[in-house]
Description:
alpha/beta
Amino acid sequence: MTHSEKRLYLIKELLSELPQYRNTEIPDNVDEQKRLLRSLMNIRPPHPIETKFLKIQDEYLGEEVIEKGITDSATLPVSPVNNRLILWRGDITTLKVDAIVNAANSALRGCFVPCHSCVDNIIHSVSGIQLRLACDEIMTKQGYDEPTGKAKITPAFNLPCNYVLHTVGPIVLGQLTKNHCRQLADCYQSCLKLASDRKLKSIAFCCISTGEFRFPQEKAAEIAIKTVSDYLQTDIQIEKVVFNVFKQEDYDIYKGLLT
């Protein structure tokens, strides 16, 4: 199959699972096809699928990752104040690193809103439907929603990293409180401890809670840097921590704090 044929196959297979959409007309435009495929992946419940589908999906997503480009965290410049810290602005799903951190919701099964711009949705879309299946297995066994400040680990599947660490950040409704700040620090500590326990050497954090969860960006950056820096003083397993930002505003905030 060509790359385009794989995309069409995946779309048709996912549509066939949904009786109400089986007669949906597939657009000719490539970008619209990609958006439709991502939407179908986003809304798909965590139930098993045929091995053939997964094989073709993995080939397709792998090709997409290569086309988008991969950034090796080992090549990124370190902070002048701490040679174990890195500030990088870019797409976290293109980063080659031992583990990336996903800012998840308490259900921990990914974002079900088609093509939503949150990092949770983007990570699941690039990783493939196995990520939701893996998360569902963990959460079904756990039997209750993931508490704020804790973390879980899964394989990364089609992402260029090896693992995904899923953590639930605090939701700020109204005034920021000391409890919000403690919970955010817990997210960073939980991820770092989990990564260290698994003998990982590098981890990349997104800006936890600063998007949909409305944690003030500057305060979140201060907590992130302090918590990570304090943790690394007593941990010798983790060699590099990447603070991954997507917005220029966040980059400027971190840059000011790390110089």
